[in-house]
Amino acid sequence: xxxxxxxxxxxxxxxxxxxxxxxxxxxxxxxxxxxxxxxxxxxxxxxxxxxxxxxxxxxxxxxxxxxxxxxxxxxxxxxxxxxxxxxxxxxxxxxxxxxxxxxxxxxxxxxxxxxxxxxxxxxxxxxxxxxxxxxxxxxxxxxxxxxxxxxxxxxxxxxxxxxxxxxxxxxxxxxxxxxxxxxxxxxxxxxxxxxxxxx
Length: 199
Known about the structure:
Elements: E1 2-6, E2 9-13, E3 27-32, E4 35-40, E5 49-50, E6 56-67, E7 71-75, E8 80-84, E9 97-104, E10 112-119, E11 124-133, E12 139-144, E13 150-155, E14 173-182, E15 187-196
Parallel strand pairs: 13-15
Antiparallel strand pairs: 1-2, 3-4, 5-6, 6-7, 6-9, 7-8, 9-10, 11-12, 11-14, 12-13, 14-15
């Protein structure tokens, strides 16, 4: 049995190959010989992004000017942008370099809402040594930085920023913005965002 989400619609399918895809992966349901199987749906354009409800997600890079419990101000190259912000577990403060993802319903503060704040000072660059699908369906990546320090990264749904899960491979270089780092060896990282940064 496989549960698929289509925006705010949930459908349940019985498929023949549930172990061939990852948790959070975009898939196609193929009907064949009275059976259903899953195939990866390959996204070709990662520039335009949407929420599950269809709202366009925009992003900026800048420096935090002010942060409070309900608003965020970020200085970009030529202006200060103000957003509605409900806070998170991410530790940010004035002067931090961040990427901000937001949904814009208009030009006023109450119409621009932050969906994710990414503190860029915490970015890790890793080269993938191995990939593994665990029992829950989650993709786990083992990578190492330029000093050989190894980390396990859980590719949680929605954290893959510019790649399809089925196309991630050994040797790829990735940038990981961590949300949680568990102090162990190798380190275990729960990311906010993962990007492929191959040259």
